[in-house]
Amino acid sequence: MKIVVAGKGGAGKTTVSGTIARALARAGNPVLALDADANPMLGVSLGVGFEKTDMLNSVRQALDAGDVEHQPTVEGMVENFGTDAPDGVRLVVASRIDNDSPGCQCCGVSPDQILRELEHEYRMVICDLEAGIGTLTRMEPGNADVIVVVANPTAKALEVARRAVELADDLAEVVVLANRVRDDEDLKAITDVLGEDRELIVIPEDSVIAAADRDGTAPIDLDPDSPGVAAIIKLADRLAGAPVPA
Amino acid sequence: MRIAVVGKGGAGKSVIAGTTARLLARDGKRVLALDSDLLPGLSISLGSGPDPVDPPLNQAAEKGENGRWRLRQGVNVVGAVKRYTTEAPDGVRLMQIGKSGKEGIQPIMGSINAYYKMVHRLKDAKTFRDWELVADLPAGPRQVAFDYAPFAETYLVVVQPGSQSALTARRVAKIARMRGGTEVRFVANRVKGKRDTAHVERLIGEQVFWSLPADEGVAEAERLGIAPIDHVPDSPTIAGIGELVAALASLEGQGQPMKSSNGVS
Question: Hey, what CATH topology would domain B2-251 get?
Answer without folding.
Answer: Rossmann fold (3.40.50)
